[in-house]
Amino acid sequence: MLYYNLKPIMKLRGISHPYSFLVNAGFSPKIAQKISGGTMRSLRMSHVERLCLALMCEPNDLLAWKPNPEGVYPENLPLYNLQPAEDETMNLHNTLLKMPYDELKALTQKIKELKEEE
After folding, report:
1. At the topology level of CATH, where does 2-84 sit?
2. Separation in Å, CA 68 to CA 62, 73, 87, 88
């Protein structure tokens, strides 16, 4: 089953109030409530695009797939790429807090280099 899996990307982006974020991104309060509450079953393409622009992501980042337990699927099924990672609790802020200062400096330098390559 395909479903919208926005919690991990919201968490990585440091968005602690998804509803407010979505309203500020131009979603109506009703749509923002459904999206932030995880009850949205389908989205118009314009909404998907608006989400991607606001979250700086791709549509595939918004979706996840959970195989039906009774289903039989080929091993090379592309939908397997949409299975959420085992650890959806990744928290960049906590990771950075635990890094030694010299590693933070090296990471900052690497990010700067990558930005310059763009």
Report:
1. 434 Repressor (Amino-terminal Domain) (1.10.260)
2. 20, 9, 21, 20
Distances (CA, A) of 7 to 74, 76, 107: 28, 27, 25
Concatenating the DSSP letter of every residue in the chain gives: -EEE--HHHHHHTT-S-HHHHHHHTT--HHHHHHHHHT------HHHHHHHHHHHT--HHHHEEE---TT----TT-GGGGGSPPS-TT--HHHHHHHS-HHHHHHHHHHHHHHHHH-
Q: Do 96 and 104 contact (CB within 8 A), yes or no?
A: yes
Q: How many CB atoms lie within 10 A of CB 52?
A: 15
User: Domain-by-domain residue ranges, the chain?
Assistant: 2-84
Q: pLDDT digits over 32-53, tens only? A: 999 998 888 889 999 999 999 9
**CB 9, CB 62: distance < 8 Å:** yes
55 and 9 in contact (C-beta within 8 Å)?
A: yes
pTM of the model: 0.69
